[in-house]
Structure formats: C-alpha cells, structure tokens
C-alpha cells in the first residue's frame, strides 16, 4: 500500500493548510469529458498537491485532449474501453488494462465515472489495493431505461454495479432519485456511504450572462439519442412552427454510438423540412446559448444535465422534464417550466408561453443565473467532493 505525506507550508512565520502529496487516478469513458466536465476538479486536485493521472479510451499521442491535459501537468493513460459495446472479452480487456495500470502507478485515490469506468475501475482498484476508492454516478444511461428489449442488459448492469460498488468507500450521485433507486434495488449495500452533489457544477465566470436575442428562439444541445427527448423536441418544434413559422429551433450534438441513437435520415428530414436548424457538434456551446432565448432539454432521465446548468449560468430560461436529474434544475414557473416526460403537447404549450409572452424569458433567465450561482457553482461542488474524499 502506498503512503500519503502531508507537507505543511510556512508563510510569514505561520503554517498554512498542508499540501497533500499523493497520486489521484480519474477514470473516464470519454476523453473529451475530462476537460469539459472534470477540468475544474482536476485543477482543484492539483491545487492540493496531488499528482493527477487520468485514464480514458483513445488518448494516444497527438490527441488534442491528451495534449491539453499534459499541458496542465496531468499524466495521461490511454486504455481500451468501448462505452456502448457489450462484448465480454472487450470488457475483460478493459478490466485487465485498468488493473495493470493501477498496479504500476499505485494511486492513493481512484474515482471512476460513467458505467464502465465505475464498474471495472472500482473492481480493478480493489484488486490492486488502491486505498481510497470512489464512484461517481452521472446518470443511469440506456440500460436503465427499462422495457422488454433491455431487461437482460439491465439485469447484467445491475449485478455488476452491486459487485463493484460493494468495493468502494463512497458513491457520489448527482440527484436524490438515482441514489434512492440504487438503495431500493440493493445496488448500493448498506455499509457503503453515498453523497448527493449538485451535478458536475458549472464555471459561472466562463459561462457569463449574455443579452437575449430580440426574437423568441429555442435550443437543445445533446447527444442525439431518443432518451434525450430529441424526437419530442422536433415534433413540438413542428407544431409550434405551424402557428409561428418564424420561430427558430436549433439543435446541437452528434449521433452517438448507442442503440438508442437518432437515425441519420431522421435528422436530415428535420433539417430539410425546416423544422430544426442543425448546428453539429460544438466544442464551445456558449455561442449557441447566446444566440437563443430559451434552453430546452426533454430528457427522460439525467444525472444532472450539464448543458442546462451552462444555459442557466448564461441567464437563460429552461424547459425540461419532471424527471430525475432534470427537475432539480427548475423551479416550475420560476426559472422555467417542467413538462411530463414524452409529452409533445406539454412541451409545445411551454414553448408557446415564451412566444406569447416574450418578457418571460428575461425574468426567468435572471432566476436561472441566481440558482446557478447559489447551487451549481463548480467550485462549491468540487469542494464538497474533495472533502468527502478526505482530500481537504
């Protein structure tokens, strides 16, 4: 087992809070998420004197994410991991690679997020003797959208979750519904602690308030999946445009390698008929948010949706679903509206309110910014996580 050293630093004849020497391994399922979603967490860990290692797929030499992380002083490891594949041999290879990596670098802390990094990262860390092991549940994903086609996959994922989470000290959830579900289904055993944090947080200085456009307009940013409510968004947009042809509906994102992905021909049809303006995959979403008055996410379930937090920080009213992870971001009638999952009619009616009363977007946007500052500031969220991991 590796040791951890606390160095006290003398300043002006007194001692400041100690800096903790050790190695922290962050395991991710998508390389881009390391900077987009965990960049501030990595910086916070470094500010406490930790050497940060990250492991994610496809991070070979020359990858721009790798170069940006290494410029920050992060040690980068590329691992074989396919987020959506269900090949047991491929998953065994992922587990084996993580175990070998941990045996080699001997981290003091390990945190995995998303399904496979949580499951295989936690099990590998336990077998490798990593002293402090943590998991972050950022959402339940495709397997938990329970229906007849997914029952076998759901059963397997739940068994693996229960096995892996029994080997960590603490599990972080991004909404109370997910925490309750894991407890109810005995995926999280009684002896394992859990903490609900306010999503991944948002950098409220980077996502600053911008003026609203003159005309009502709507935006959805998401992986192009059915479970994100993309089809409901397109159908509601079609209904609204039949009454108000000049209203713009923008869509940003990409077709994901997922069984629930939107088909390319569906997207092309929406664009061709003029229902949606497709913005593609954006490396920086701030321009798209600035150009639209209302942010929409009709998702079936989330951890806590980061794009909603970014839109809130920029002073945008929100329409989202009364679903786990989504409902926490909106005070219905305060900073936006909550609609039932899969209800095109309710989504259309919420959109029409902003068209018929344009002043709503400005009033609700002010409330969104206030909530972002008070509840979702990334520095506040990260402070809770570091404290719960015993780093501060």
Keywords:
alpha/beta, six-stranded parallel β-sheet, 39% helix, globular
Order of helices and strands: EEEEHHEHEHEHEHEHEEHEHEHEHEEHHH
Overall spatial form: globular
Mean pLDDT: 91
Number of helices: 14
Instruction: Kindly report how far apart the N and C termini lie.
Output: 21 Å
Unreliable segments of 5+ consecutive residues: 1-18
* Biggest pleated-sheet summary: 8 strands, mixed
Looking at how many chains there are and whether they match, the oligomeric state comes to single chain
Total number of beta strands: 16
**Main structural class:** alpha/beta
**How big a fraction of the residues is strand?**
15-25%
Radius of gyration: 22 Å
- Binned, the helix content reads 25-40%
